[in-house]
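WARN  no MSA supplied for this record, continuing single-sequence
INFO  ligand: hexanoyl-coenzyme A
INFO  echoing inputs
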Amino acid sequence: MEENKKDLNQNPTHDIKPDKDLEKKEADKNDKPAAKKPKKTAVKEVPFKLQKFREIINGALNQTPPERIEAHKSKGKLTARERLAYLLDEGSFEEFGLLVESRCTDFGIKDKHIKGDGVVTGFGRINGRKVAVFSQDFTLLGGSLGLAHAKKIAYIMDIAKKVGCPVIGILDSGGARIQEGVDSLDGYGEIFRRNVESSGVIPQISIIVGPCAGGAVYSPALTDFVFMVQGISNMFVTGPAVVKASTGEEVDFDTLGGAKTHASKSGVCHFVSNSEQECYRTVKELLSYLPSNSSEKPPVIVSNDSAKRETPLLERLCSIDPKKPYRVHHIIWWLADEHKFLEVHKDFAKNIVVGFIRLNGEVVGVVANNSAYMAGALDIDASDKAARFIRFLNNFNIPILTLVDVPGYWPGVKQEHGGIIRHGAKLLYAYAEATVPKVSLILRKAYGGAYIAMSSKYLGGDINFSLPSAEIAVMGPGGAIEILYSKQLKEAKDEERQAIKDKLTQEYADKFASPYQTASTGSIDEVIEPKLARQKIIEAFSILKNKNVNSFSNKKGNIPL
Ligand code: HXC
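INFO  complex generated
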C-alpha cells in the first residue's frame, strides 16, 4: 500500500523506476540469492489504465506548443511553472486541478479547451513554511480568466484560509476571458470576495509578471503586497487605446501602468524588481517577517547582534542644525539587528518610510518620518501609506516602532482640496485602533497635529521615548512667534524688529523646542541617551511582549476612506 502511494506521488513526467529492494525481498523469500535470479529479457508491459493516466498527465503538463513558449520567453518572461520553481522549496509543489477544463463552447473556444484552464494552482513550501499558490499561464488562452480558472483559484484560497497559510498569486493574464462573457466576470467576483474574507486573516501577496488589465487589477489591489517587475508588468483599468479614445491622451503601456509608475506615483505597487528571479527572492524575504495567519506571532530567530549594541550615530542629531535633512534609513539601519531593513513602498511617499526589521530576533514594523524628503511632513500619500502598513502590522501581531521627526502636515491648496483632512485622519485611526505593542522615539521635530498622529501617548502609544535633540511643540519657533507677537513685531522699529524676534524665538525655543516640558507632563516616558536607543527600544518591546488588549475585537469601526 505504502509502495503504491510512493509511486503515485512521483512526478508522472519521469519514468517510475523498478524497486530493487522489493525484488531482493522477493528473492530472499524464495531462499535464493538475488544474484541468481534469472535475468528479465522482456520489458514489463505497462497496464493500459496506467499508460492512459501517464499520457493524460504528460499531455496536460506539456500542452503549450514550443513556439509559444519561445515567444513568451522572448519577452523576458519565465513560464508559469518555472515561476513556481523559483518561488517554492525544491520538490515541495503539490498541484491540484491539473485536469480542470472550461465548459464554455462559444466563439470557437470548444476547440481550444485546455487542461488546467490556463492557471497552475496548488500548495508548496517556502523555507519550510506552507503557502498556497496560483500561477497564470499566459501561453494558454493568454492566461485569461474563465469560470473554471477562477474556481481553481477560489479553491486554494478557501483551503488557505481554513488552514491559515499565505496565498501568493502570480498574475500574467489578458483579464476576463472574453468568450465566457459574464461567467468570467462572475469568476472575478468569486476571487474578490475571498480576497476580502481573507484580508487580515492570512497574508495575501500578488506578483504581477505580465499584463493585468480591467477589473482584474482589483484582486491584487485587495491583497496586502503587490510586486511588479520592470519591463514586463502592467496594471491598468483601461489600456492606452481606450485612454486615447476616451480622453485623447497618448500614453504607452509602461508610462500608463508599468512597475515604476505604480511604485512611485499611484502607490499600487509595494516592491519593484529588475528581474523575476529578484522578485521571487524578495517575496521570500518578505515572508520571513510574516506569521502564516493572524492567530500566530511572526517568526523569531536567534539574533547574532547584541541587544546592548550602542547606537552612537544618533548622538549626531544633537549637534546638527535642526533644519538639516537626513535619510532616516541611517537611523533604522543602526537600530536594526545586523543593520537589516526590508523597506516596503520604497519609492512612494518618500517622506515617510515603512518596513520590517528585527530587534533581538523579533520582528518589528517601522514607521518613520524622513526629513530628507519634504522635510518629513505628512501629506495625503504619506498618510495613506503609513495607515495601511500600520493596519497590516496590527492584523498580523507585529509590534510597531515609530521614529518621529515631523514638522507638521504639508500645507497648500492642492493638499487641502485633495483631502488631507480625510487622508490624514486614516493615520490617526490606524494608530489609535492598533492594539499591538507601540513604542515611539522622537528624534527631532514633533509639531502640532502631526506630533499627535505619530503614535503619541494620548493616541495610544505604549512607551514613548525622546532623544535630547527633540523639539515638541504646537508649532516651530519661527511660526509661533509670528502669530503670538504679530502686533508687537509690527509696531517695533525697523532696526529693532529682528533683535526682538530673535529674543522671542530663543525664549520660545528654550521652553518648547526641547523634550523636557513634554516629559514633565508625562507625554514622554523617558528622555534617553542616544547611544542607548537600541537597548532601550528592545527593552520596551520586551516589557510589552504579552500586551493583551481586546477592546476592538468585536467593534466594527468606520475608517475615513
Ligand atoms: C480571451 C485572450 C484574452 C482575453 C488575450 N487573449 N486576452 N483570450 N480573453 N481577455 C488571447 C489572445 O486572443 C491570444 O490568443 C493570446 O491570448 C495572446 O494574446 P496576444 O494579444 O497575442 O498577446 P499580446 O500581444 O502579448 O497582448 C496581450 C494583451 C492583449 C495586451 C493582454 O491580449 C489584450 O489586450 N487582451 C485583452 C485585454 C482586455 O481588455 N481584457 C479584458 C479586460 S476587462 P491566440 O489564440 O490568438 O494566441 C476585465 C474585466 C474584469 O478583465 C472585471 C472584473 C470585475
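DSSP finds 22 helices and 17 strands in the chain.
INFO  checksum written, moving to next record
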